[in-house]
Each structure stands twice: as structure tokens, then as C-alpha cells.
Design brief:
The complex is a heterotrimer of chains A (about 250), B (about 240) and C (about 210).
Chain A: H1 6-44, H2 58-85, H3 88-120, H4 128-149, H5 153-185, H6 200-232, H7 237-246
Helix pairs in contact in A: 1-6, 2-3, 2-5, 2-6, 3-4, 3-5, 3-6, 4-5
Chain B: E1 10-11, H1 14-31, H2 33-54, H3 58-79, H4 82-91, H5 93-98, H6 104-133, H7 138-165, H8 172-180, H9 185-199, H10 205-234
Chain C: E1 2-11, E2 14-24, E3 28-33, H1 40-48, E4 55-60, E5 63-64, H2 69-73, E6 76-79, H3 91-101, E7 104-105, H4 108-117, H5 133-141, H6 143-146, E8 151-155, H7 163-178, E9 182-186, E10 197-202
Parallel strand pairs in C: 3-9, 3-10, 6-8, 8-9
Antiparallel strand pairs in C: 1-2, 1-4, 4-5
Helix pairs in contact in C: 3-4
Classes of the chains: A mainly alpha (about 250), B mainly alpha (about 240), C alpha/beta (about 210).
């Protein structure tokens, strides 16, 4: 009879309920790490003798910048897997990662400029890291715009996959060229990461916040991938059974 | 045996196919040469807007010159991308091109080569003329031309990926800009940086070497991305 | 020998057809039938290798056509809905360019002769943008007069043609089949084509 590759159709069906079970756990962990991280950041970490209290924005800024880059690589990885192995779930994951990645990129830019105001007296400097983050945000926007513009979901998945891979190859090139441009044009720029003698507690605060962001990202991405699956599979039997069971 | 016309049919190898496609595309460019001229006019208009916007101070213009010409070249190359695949897609020849026995990455390379000959070379010839308007001197002009010569193939190759991905989409032109302008930032930085370096007396050798390396890397990788994108868009 | 093995086609999230299996010997004329939207064009594009099947295989001379893509494409002519004619070129240039693309480069004399046979003898120097839809179609179909490829995939080839041209095309296909060629085609208007083996492939009933 018909020999459709059921493997790739089946995996969203098994993944959907699994994601549903995992989401509350990651949500709880995100709150837990968030509370701990903010506590360390606001109350435990010492006041910086140069920057005063204003430096405390790094507990958001640095982890957000980390996340923005991790998530782009994660997105490219999923998109690449989806492209190579033609697995639908991987491409759906790539789609689900993109908005969260863009959110963290925006957060990194926003907190960066809030930090920049007391530090440099201006909201924006063409610092190498800020500029790279800005370009990264454009890359996320490009991916999301392309995927959204294509009506056929499979074509969207695969086109997005090619773009994400091309972007991933380009990210290091962009990063180094921007860094080079920056050193040539602004000899004495202030570097965001050159925080003088970072206390151990500051590092702990940032790590806790990074964990919080990870847990948040996983929870949100799982929820979003559930939406993507539900939208795609609305006509399929298993989803209707599931909906009937819950109603 | 069947038709007299078939007697002189010859089977062709990849090289012949590549050149055949290139010749066809160049013939089409020649028939639609007004398009190529439009790109050049656009290029010079954009460049001419800058002195009107920032003032005619010769020192300022000399400082801005390289960057302005490069940004304009980036935009001009972008503007010409819709010619690359869209027309062939609309009239069905792209399907025939895909069905050619020529491996698809080579097909992509042939199309991009034709596009570069039609836009990259004219931009390269035009760039020093526009550079002169900004008071760039001998060395700066030379480096500007060399940079544009090395950089425009990269713009065409990366642009081809974007053009292939957005084939047949609503608002495709705008989308292409969003997709590929960020990817072309290294070319801009290196190209404009080279002019700056030459103007300030530092050698532009490092910039141009990196630009060359970028060209080689793109030349190796991009045709495969274009091929994948074309398959996806025509599926 | 062309063999379709449980082919399935999915467009978007919709399954157009599945489980299409068939075997065709040289000299067979295959009419792909089905109502609008049952995937006739999709099937031809699938066989041509323009899109990938959701499941199944296409074997040509016993070889997987996707794995041996270049070899398969050397044996294949596909004429789709869009005629594949460039407006800026004249009919001779068009025919020579499309033949060259298909690795069957022809001399200008052969191109002129084929176009003359299609009734375009007086329009050889005009750019194709001034030709009518039927005339462009003839320019595209002139490919069939100069090709030696065994497998023809024709999507609605009779569209926009006048009765003489329809007859001429049917005759061309008939001779191709008689010489051991194979042809898969779709049509809305039934056209008698001389063929020793003529079968239908019906879509939309599964």
C-alpha cells in the first residue's frame, strides 16, 4: 500500500504532549533561577567603586547578549537538521527559536544603551559588540520575515534553513569585520566586558540570570513549537483526538 | 533516421553548457541594456545625494568618499538582483535551466557571472569617476576601484542566494534587501576601510587581501546555497 | 523503461496523491487524467525532478532518477505551462538557446527548419514578445522536432494551438512513440495520437 514515511509525521504527534508536560517544569525553574539571580544581583553583589549602582544592569545585559548568540546558533542547528534530514520537527523548532532569540538580542541592545547612558553619557556608541548585536537583530528579522512571507510551510522551513545556515557561516565573519572596523575607527573605545576586577559574586549573579534565561527560553520555545504544530496539524486525527480528550 | 534536422545534434559537456548559459544571459542583458544603464544612473544619483545632504566641505567629502561610493554600490547591486532569476521564473525558462544536465551550482555560477558582468563591471568602471567628485586622489581611487572589483562579485553571489530564496514571493524585492544587506556588511567594511587606509597613508593591502579571501570563500560556498535555494523555491 | 514506485505528493499540508505505481515500456503514450487540482501538473513536475516526492521513487532504465539526476535529465524533455520562451529573443535564438541548455546544441539551419515546420517561417526575425500565445507555444514545441531525448513530459501541450498545429503536434508525438520514445502528457481536449500502446494514469481517486 502507500509507503509514506510515517516517521517524520509521527514525531510532532509524540512531541506535542511531551512538550506540554515539560513546560511547567522549565517555567518553575526559570522563576527560581530568576529570583536567585536578581537577589544576588541586587543585594549580594558589591557596589562597583567606579561605576556605582548603575553597573547592575549587566546582570541582564550580559546574559541576554549570551543568549542572543546561543539561540542564533541553536536556530541554525535546528534549521540545518531540518534541511538535511527533512525532519519537520527540527524546522518547527527553528521557527520557534527565532522570536525568542530576537527578543534577547533586543534586550541586550536596550540594556546596553541604558548602561551606556551613565557610562559614556550617550545612549548609543558604535561599539563593536553593540554593532554586532544590532546586525544579529537584523539577521533574526531577516529569517522571521522570510519564513513569514512564504505561504507553503514546507518551503518556508527549507528556505529558512538555507538562510539560517548562510547566516551562521556569516556571523563570525561579520563579528570579526565589525571588531576590526571598530579598532581602526575608534582607538580608545570603551569595552563593555572590560569591567574592572569582576567580583566573584557578580559572576554568580550573571550565571544565575543566564540559567534563568535558558529555562525561560526553553519554556517559551516549547510553548511556541506547540502552537506551530497545532497550526500545521489542525486537520490531523491525533490532534483532534487530543483536543476532544481535553474538552 | 527520423528527422533531417536531427543530424547535427551534438551532445555537450559541462563546459559547453556553462558557456551556453552564460552566452544566453549576456545576450538577454544586451537586449535589455536599458536595465543595466538604470542601475548605473541609480548608482550615481545616490552618490550625488550625499554632498547635497552633508554639505560640500572638501575635507568632509574626502573623508566620506569611500564609504559613500561603497554604500551606493551595495544598493545599486541590490536593485539589480530582481533581474537575476525573476524574469526566468516568470516565463518558465528557469524550469528549463534547472532541468539542464549542468550541475545546479555551476548553473548558479553561470547566472551570477552574467549578472556580475552586467552590473559589477560597470560599477567598477564608474566608481573612480564618482570617487573623484569626492576629492579622492590617485591612491584612493586605485584602491577604490580594486576594492569594488573584488567586492562586487561577492555582492552578486550573496545577492543570488537572497534572490533565489525570495523567488515568486510577494514583496520579494524588499525582502531581499532585508535578507542580504546584513550579510554584505563585511564587504562594506573592508571595501570602505581600504579606501580610508589608502587615504591616510596606511597601506590598503590587508583590507584588499581580506576582501580577496572573502571573494574566494563566497565563490566556493555561495553557488551551493543558491542551488539549494533554487530547488526549494521551484519545488 | 519508466517505473513509478508508490509516488506520493504533498503540497503545503495537503496530500494530492499517494501510492501511484506504474511501469511503462518504450513506445508507450501515457495520458495523465484527473479533475482540476488532482495533481496532474505536480505529477509531471515530480517525474521531471523539479520537485521531490513526499514518498516513493522514480526509476528510469532501472536507475533511481534522483540519485542519477544528470543522466536522467539528459534523457528528458519537459514542457510546462509556461512556455519557457524569452520575450527578448527571436524564435531561432530561443530554440537554439533551449536546445543548448538541454545539452543538444543545434545549428542555425536546423533551428530554422524546425520552426518552419511549425509554421513560423515568416516570423523568424521577430522578437518573441510580438508573437501571439499560440505562436510562442509553437516556438516551444519546435523543441520536440529537434530533440532526440526518449522521455517527453508535456503539460497541456495542445493549449492555445489551432487545429493544424494540434494535428502537427499529434503527428510529432506519434512518430516519437513509433521510434521507441515515451510520452507522458496532460490534456483537457482529447486528441487522437497514433500509438501502439496508450494508457491512462488517473489521479484523484484515492
Amino acid at each position: 500500500m502507500t509507503r509514506i514515511n510515517w516517521f517524520k509525521y509521527a514525531s510532532p504527534a509524540t512531541f506535542f504532549p511531551l512538550a506540554g508536560r515539560l513546560i511547567p517544569w522549565f517555567r518553575a525553574l526559570a522563576v527560581l533561577f530568576g529570583v536567585a539571580g536578581l537577589y544576588v544581583g541586587f543585594f549580594v553583589a558589591p557596589t562597583d567603586f567606579q561605576q556605582g549602582e548603575a553597573y547592575r544592569i549587566i546582570f541582564l545585559h550580559v546574559p541576554a547578549a549570551w543568549m542572543s548568540m546561543f539561540l542564533y546558533m541553536l536556530m541554525a542547528l535546528y534549521a540545518g537538521l531540518g534541511l538535511v534530514f527533512n525532519t519537520r520537527l527540527s524546522s518547527m523548532m527553528a521557527r520557534a527559536v527565532a522570536p525568542t532569540g530576537a527578543l534577547f538580542t533586543f534586550l541586550a541592545l536596550w540594556t546596553g544603551s541604558m548602561w551606556g547612558r551613565p557610562m559614556w553619557g550617550t545612549y548609543w556608541v558604535w561599539d563593536a559588540r553593540l554593532t554586532s548585536e544590532l546586525i544579529l537583530l537584523f539577521l533574526y528579522f531577516g529569517y522571521m520575515a522570510l519564513v513569514a512571507a512564504i505561504d507553503d510551510p514546507r518551503r518556508g522551513d527549507r528556505a529558512g534553513g538555507v538562510l539560517a545556515l548562510v547566516g551562521a557561516v556569516n556571523v563570525p565573519i561579520i563579528y570579526f569585520s565589525v571588531k576590526w572596523w571598530n579598532t581602526l575607527h575608534q582607538g580608545s573605545s570603551i569595552n563593555l566586558t572590560r569591567a574592572p576586577s569582576m567580583a566573584a559574586m557578580m559572576l554568580w549573579g550573571m550565571l544565575l540570570m543566564a540559567l534563568c534565561f535558558w529555562m525561560y527560553s526553553i519554556a517559551v520555545i516549547l510553548a511556541r513549537v506547540q502552537c506551530v504544530i497545532a497550526e500545521r496539524e489542525q486537520r490531523s486525527a491525533w490532534l483532534q483526538e487530543l483536543a476532544a480528550g481535553e474538552a | 533516421m527520423r528527422e533531417p534536422a536531427q543530424a547535427d545534434v551534438v551532445l555537450a559537456g559541462d563546459g559547453t553548457l556553462f558557456l551556453g548559459l552564460l552566452r544566453r544571459d549576456l545576450l538577454l542583458v544586451y537586449r535589455r541594456r536599458a536595465d543595466a544603464v538604470t542601475v548605473l544612473v541609480f548608482f550615481s544619483i545616490v552618490v550625488s545625494l550625499f554632498p547635497l545632504g552633508v554639505g560640500a566641505d572638501p575635507n568632509l567629502l574626502r573623508l566620506l568618499g569611500g564609504g559613500v561610493v561603497w554604500v551606493a554600490a551595495l544598493l545599486a547591486s541590490l536593485l539589480s538582483l530582481n533581474r537575476l532569476f525573476a524574469a526566468d521564473h516568470a516565463d518558465g525558462t528557469l524550469e528549463q535551466i534547472l532541468l539542464s544536465p549542468l550541475p545546479l551550482p555551476l548553473t548558479a555560477l553561470a547566472k551570477v557571472t552574467a549578472h556580475w558582468i552586467a552590473t559589477g563591471i560597470p560599477l567598477t568602471l564608474m566608481a573612480p569617476v564618482l570617487g573623484m567628485q569626492f576629492g579622492l586622489d590617485g591612491d584612493g581611487l586605485l584602491v577604490l576601484s580594486a576594492g569594488v572589483l573584488l567586492g562586487t562579485p561577492v555582492l552578486s553571489l550573496v545577492g543570488a542566494v537572497g534572490a533565489a530564496l525570495t523567488l515568486g514571493l510577494r514583496g520579494g524585492n524588499l525582502l531581499v534587501a532585508l535578507l542580504i544587506l546584513p550579510l554584505n556588511i563585511p564587504v562594506l567594511i573592508l571595501g570602505a576601510g581600504a579606501v580610508d587606509a589608502a587615504q591616510s597613508g596606511l597601506g590598503a593591502g590587508a583590507h584588499l587581501s581580506l576582501l580577496g579571501a572573502l571573494l574566494v570563500g563566497t565563490l566556493v560556498g555561495a553557488p551551493f546555497a543558491v542551488a539549494a535555494a533554487l530547488r526549494i523555491s521551484l519545488d | 523503461m519508466l517505473e513509478l514506485k508508490s509516488l506520493a505528493c504533498v503540497r503545503g499540508e495537503r496530500r494530492l496523491f499517494s501510492g501511484i505505481s506504474a511501469r511503462y515500456a518504450p513506445g508507450t503514450l501515457v495520458r495523465v487524467c484527473g479533475d482540476n487540482g488532482t495533481g496532474k501538473t505536480s505529477l509531471l513536475r515530480l517525474v521531471a525532478g523539479l520537485s521531490e516526492p513526499a514518498a516513493g521513487q522514480i526509476l528510469w532504465q532501472g536507475q533511481d532518477s534522483q540519485r542519477e539526476r544528470a543522466a536522467f535529465q539528459r534523457d528528458l524533455v519537459y514542457l510546462g505551462h509556461a512556455s519557457g520562451i524569452k520575450d527578448e529573443l527571436d524564435p531561432v535564438e530561443n530554440l537554439m538557446a533551449s536546445s543548448a541548455l538541454a545539452a543538444e546544441g543545434i545549428e542555425i539551419g536546423a533551428a530554422r527548419q524546425a520552426l518552419g515546420e511549425m509554421g513560423l517561417g515568416e516570423r523568424l526575425a521577430l522578437e518573441c514578445k510580438v508573437l501571439s500565445a499560440g505562436q510562442r507555444r509553437r516556438v516551444a514545441l519546435a523543441r520536440l522536432l529537434v530533440t532526440r531525448k526518449p522521455l517527453w513530459l508535456l503539460d497541456e501541450p495542445f493549449n492555445a494551438l489551432d487545429p493544424q498545429a494540434v494535428e502537427r503536434l499529434a503527428d510529432t508525438v506519434g512518430r516519437h512513440l513509433a521510434a521507441g520514445g515515451m510520452c507522458l502528457y496532460t490534456t483537457h481536449q482529447p486528441v487522437p495520437i497514433r500509438a501502439t500502446q496508450s494508457v491512462e494514469l488517473r489521479l484523484g481517486r484515492n
